[in-house]
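Example 148.
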Amino acid sequence: MSRLIYILNGPNLNLLGKRQPHIYGHETLADVEAECRTLARQHNLEVRFHQSNREYELIDWIHEARETAGGIIINPAAFTHTSVALLDALNTFEGPVIEVHISQVHKREAFRHHSYVSHRSDAVMAGFGTQGYTLAVLRLAKLLKPAT
Ligand code: DQA
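Predicted structure in complex with DQA:
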């Protein structure tokens, strides 16, 4: 089983730390990446960490992950609520998929309550702040552990 995981981030998450900090907190995406890499290393996982504001780039990384990765963590951001294309791409991936939302989307506007991606996700983190990412890394570390 591949020990490589992809951590993918959708639109506007490049502004994490500056964007609506009362909702998304003060940590930057670089902080999140550093925390995930440290934790992943401790669990013998390799990380590819990406962010894009373009739907097709996220789809291309999912296609790449099909060939190389054991699992995917994805915060699709606003594409969560709009993108059948991302769902279709994730449906081509065979390993575990964990969906992360920094905010508790179910407490927010009604349009954030539906996730196309959740039709595929094996687990969903919402409302754990940026800690949701590291919790998701821990879960993948467990799921991708070779059987003993
Ligand atoms: C988000 C929640 C989405 O509704 C929103 O569009 C985002 C971020 C989150 O991490 O809480 O951009 O995915």
